[in-house]
Each structure stands twice: as C-alpha cells, then as structure tokens.
Amino acid sequence: MSVYNVTSFYPTFFILVGIPGLQDSQRWVGIVVCLIYIISVIGNVTLVVVISHSHSLHGPMFIFLMLLASNDILLGISIVPKMLSIFFSGSRLILFDVCLVQMFFLHSFTIIESGLLLSMAFDRYVAICKPLRYSSIVTSRLIVKIIVMLCVRPVVLIVPYLLLVKRFKTNIISHSYCEHMAMVKLADVDIRVNSTWGLLVAFVVVGNYLLFISLSYGRIFQAVYRLPSTEARVKAFNTCTPHICVFLSFYTLGIFSFLSHRYGKHIPSYIHIILSDLYLLVPPMINPLMYGMKTNLISEHVWKLLIKTM
After folding, report:
1. What is residue 58's three-state secondary structure?
2. Fewest C-beta in 10 Å: which of 51, 112, 253, 307?
3. Does the structure show a pLDDT above 90 at 68?
4. Residue 294, domain member (yes or no)
C-alpha cells in the first residue's frame, strides 16, 4: 500500500511536502534556513546568558527580553530540525502524535511571542508615560502574573486545534512543518469549525494584541514629543526603537502569511510556504541583533563577556 493512501480513521503519520513546487531547490533553501537558524541561536543564547549573569540587567524590560529570547530558541527547536531533514535528506515522514506535539508548541510559542511583545510595549509605555509610578506598577508580582497568563493562554487556544485535527483523514501536508491551516486546506471533512476557531484565535492574538501594542506606542509617541528637550526626546525614542523594529518584523510577516493562506488563492503555493517559514525564522534572528545593537547596556555586557572568554 502506498504511504499516500491511508484510510484509517485518522492517519498514523503525516507526510510533509516541504515547499511545493521547489522540491528540486530545497537543498538551497535548507542552506539559507540553516544559516538563519545558526545566527538566531547564537544571538538569542547570548542574550539569555548575558541577561541572566548581569545583575544590572535584571529589570522588568530585560526579564521580558530574556523570556523573548528563550521563546525564540524553543520556537526554532520545535520546527527547524525537521525542516532541515526535509530539505537535505528528504525525510518527510512524521508520526501523527509528533506532528500534533509540533503543532501545539509551534502555535503556543507564536502566541507567547505576541504576548511578550505586548508586555514589552506596556513596560515601555509605563516607563515613558508614567515614570514616577513605574516601580509601583511594574512589580515582581505583576511580572509573575503576566508569565502565568502567557503560559495558560496558548493551552486554552491551541488544545482545541489538536482535537479538531483528529477528525481529518488526509495524511499529506503541503508545508515544511505541522501547521493548522495547511492541514485544514487539504482536509476531506467539513472544516467550518476549524476555520472559525482559527479566525477566533487570530482575532484574539493578532487583533487584540496588535491593537493594544499600537495604542501603547501611540501614547508613547505623544509623551515623547511633549518632552522639553531634543536630547530627552531622542533618548526616549531610542529606548523604543528595538521594540518597534521587532514588533513590525513579527506582525508584518505574520499578517502577510495569514492573509496569503486564507485569501491568496491565486498565489503560488511555494509563496505561501516561504512566507510562513520567514514569519517563524526571521524575527528570532532579528530580535537579538536589534536589541544588541540598540541597547547600550546589553552591548556593553556582551563585549565584557567576549573579553572574559578570550
């Protein structure tokens, strides 16, 4: 029996196509993915090590940044090894349960990423707009509550995905990893429930988070322009620049990927997949570069760490 013709109630495995239409060029794509991943791991591990070992970097902003770097490391671990095995060795088979685990962590880490970006925007809003009350608002208790919420929300939103996917009988996924919408598009059952839940999750994560982040930065810009001196305005704006760049890279690629999956019927399938891959690979690479270059305290501690290890 061909591995493509599984007729059981649900498949025992899935076949990840990789990048449909670019199968002959996937080795070159794998080289690019590998380079991006190496840069991402080095940058994010450096951030985690530097922040965790430097007492002067234990403020709320740097705690959120360390959590963001840790989340990016785990996100890469959840998808990149299997992607590289597809691109380099053609190992496209993935067990059903392993695929569900990958889907859970993939979507969970992206939701946590959005939550961390919102938390960092809130932190900058309080620091710039309410500086005298910063220590009383952004407390250790609040940070713990935020972390707990960041961990609970993905479970509530993603577990229904896993239960709904078990209704599918198809075992071929035209993607580089186990992604919900890629599976839904190829399902041979009624997908209205899956689609509705997917839209709900997108509204909660993208819609609400994007709205609150935009409002936070809108208030921040108002406060910055009211500062009396140009030097103070430049200094305040520079503290927000890394957050804005990271926020734009994550949400721009995410929105393009989401819209192309749902409404880009005439866009070649390999464009869908490449956008989805970039959405998960590029922001984790950009994050440490932006924070390392734009945040003086981090740059100083990175250089100190390098000097000690040499």
Report:
1. coil
2. 307
3. yes
4. yes
Q: Of 150, 155, 159, whose CA–CA distance to 67 is shortest?
A: 150
Averaged confidence pLDDT in the chain: 80
Do the domain assignments include residue 137? Answer: yes
Structure tokens at 253: 């690629």
What would the mean pLDDT of 51-76 be, rounded to a whole number?
88
Instruction: State the Cα torsion 64-68-74-76 to the nearest 10°.
Output: -170
pLDDT at 145 over 90: yes
Classify residue 307 as exposed, middle or buried by CB count within 10 Å of its CB (0-12, 13-18, 19+).
Answer: exposed
3-state SS class at 14: strand
Residue ranges of the alpha helices (H) in the chain?
26-53, 60-89, 96-129, 134-137, 140-165, 180-185, 192-202, 209-225, 230-263, 269-294, 296-309
Q: CA–CA separation, 135 vs 129, rounded Å?
A: 13
Assign residue 220 the CATH number of its domain: 1.20.1070.10
Residue 188's pLDDT is 59
- Model confidence at 79, in pLDDT bands (50, 70, 90)? very high
Lowest model confidence (mean pLDDT) among 59-73, 128-142, 256-270: 256-270
Domain count, the chain: 1
- Give the tens place of pLDDT for each residue, 185-215: 665 556 667 667 777 777 777 777 888 888 8
In which band, very low, low, confident or very high, does the pLDDT at 2 lie, cut at 50, 70 and 90?
A: very low
pTM of the model: 0.85
Query: Do 128 and 240 touch, CB atoms closer than 8 A?
Result: yes
Residue 104 to residue 187: CA distance in whole angstroms: 19
Q: Is residue 284 part of a domain?
A: yes
Residue-range definition of the domain harbouring residue 205: 13-309
Distance separating alpha carbons of residues 207 and 255, to the nearest angstrom: 10
Distances (CA, A) of 84 to 11, 91, 94, 121: 23, 9, 13, 34
- Bridge partners (DSSP) of residue 93 are 15
